Amino acid sequence: MATSSLTFSLILLPFLLVLTTSQFSTAAATAAATNPAASFIRTSCRATTYPAVCVQSLSTYASVIQKSPKQLVMTALSVSVDRAQSTRTFVSKLTKFRGLKPREYAAIKDCLEEVSDSVDRLSKSAKELKRLGRAGGPEYTWHLSNLQTWVSAALTDDGTCLDGFSGRALNGRIKTSIRARMTNVAQVTSNALALCNKYAGKY
């Protein structure tokens, strides 16, 4: 019964992700037209690779971000950590899925290691941002460099997981579900890196 329920969830997941993204994008566009903080987020997201995803993932936090570049980066990192943690939990459960072929299990296990590394690096990045002192201070550049390096490494981890599912004879539903989640993690992480780089260039 549990296996049947998981299989059904795997089938629905890609469609639910598309629907949810569309709903959030519409709501974000409406908010940006009337809210200065939402407008700031929308303008800032233009510097990212996936601006629509950026707006969708950050607009909910407009009241927290306001018009603060640093808070914008912190929120983007927090979103990335949350998405990566959720995906790690999901992938971890799949390692216990019955009927996996050896190659399927190996690919899922490798992905679990990569997304776990991504969570760790993104968490370190968020902590490093909190340590940033006054711009131009003696340790400011060092902390900022660590921040950019770790977010970049996390993005590489996400890509490595996705690459592991290319050209393998894997269960179609499992492959599609993992790729959908990891693609979203990679997109919000890429956006977080772009916002980090923009922040570093400005300050």
TrEMBL record:
Residues 36-195 form the Pectinesterase inhibitor domain. The keyword Signal applies. Keywords: Signal. Residues 1-27 form the signal peptide. GO terms for molecular function: pectinesterase inhibitor activity. InterPro entries: Invertase/methylesterase_inhib, Pectinesterase_inhib_dom, PME_Inhibitor. PANTHER family: PECTINESTERASE INHIBITOR 7 (PTHR31080:SF87), PECTINESTERASE INHIBITOR-LIKE (PTHR31080). NCBIfam families: PME_inhib. This is Pectinesterase inhibitor domain-containing protein. The lineage of its organism: Eukaryota, Viridiplantae, Streptophyta, Embryophyta, Tracheophyta.
